[in-house]
Amino acid sequence: MGQPVAEEVIGDVPLLAIEQLGKRFGGFVALDTVDLKVPQGQRLGLIGPNGSGKSTLVNCISGTLQNETGSVSFDGQRIDGFPAHRRARLGLARSFQLPRPFRTMTVAENVRVPLIYTVGARAGVHLTQSELEDRCMEVLSLVALQDKANKNPFDLTQVEMRKLELARAMAAEPKLLIADESMAGLSHSEVEDIVALLIRMNERGVTIIMIEHIMRAVMAFSQRLVVLVSGRKIADGAPEDVIKDKDVVGAYLGT
Ligand SMILES: Nc1ncnc2c1ncn2[C@@H]1O[C@H](COP(=O)(O)OP(=O)(O)OP(=O)(O)O)[C@@H](O)[C@H]1O
């Protein structure tokens, strides 16, 4: 509530600005002139059928893939061409659908690593050992995993593992978090739990792009909904309008 839905309402520089983004794999066009501006503080849902280009778009934003045409700007700065770790230090974090925690580390140590390599590596920042511990426990409390700090991640349940993945992303103190299918395979109440967690993170000032196929989660979370089909943005606006759009129903929701 109180959040502008469309990017045009914002006069300020958007946190993320993607312009005319294009990416091919050989002769296959995975992204075709995609434009997207995301204002600071927004909760944006990104949906589309399998293979529509959502992950490719996220990879071009986070730096694991390089776009061929167009541009990506973050916080007013052009970042396409920057390696992924540099983008992470600027405040861009993503979580993965399949969590990949370090096996030999505890839950707390898994959170400490991104803290050290992103926050601790920012210019002018020196975190003492006790500051590291405090921040680590703060992030674990945010995801309600403080009691599991000394466990091995592989002793966690599926939903706890997803929370750890989000905690690792949050440890980097991001301005933008891209949550890639954080809820796949979870029960109804676990999905609600993760949606509530993402909303709490957003309330702490983090702009969030959520990629998700579970529509009740998308609708509960999103202030704005963007639909990709065959590498093109076919709809962008208020979720309740977008899900009624006949092109969206025909290409995705009706299938
Ligand atoms: N490294 C790659 N090499 C060749 N083709 C690729 C590569 N990565 C993605 N693609 C193709 O690009 C298209 C878009 O894939 P992408 O993974 O971005 O879709 P998606 O919307 O994230 O799908 P899903 O919902 O299934 O995760 C697909 O046809 C995919 O096969």
Automatic annotation (TrEMBL):
InterPro entries, per database record: AAA+_ATPase, ABC_AA/LPS_Transport, ABC_transporter-like_ATP-bd, BCA_ABC_TP_C, P-loop_NTPase
SUPFAM superfamilies per the UniProt record, alphabetical: P-loop containing nucleoside triphosphate hydrolases
Keyword list, A-Z: ATP-binding, Nucleotide-binding, Transport
GO BP terms, alphabetized: D-alanine transmembrane transport; L-alanine transport; L-isoleucine import across plasma membrane; L-valine import across plasma membrane
Pfam families xref list: ABC_tran (PF00005), BCA_ABC_TP_C (PF12399)
Domain ABC transporter: 16-255
Function: Involved in beta-(1-->2)glucan export. Transmembrane domains (TMD) form a pore in the inner membrane and the ATP-binding domain (NBD) is responsible for energy generation.
Protein name: ABC transporter ATP-binding protein
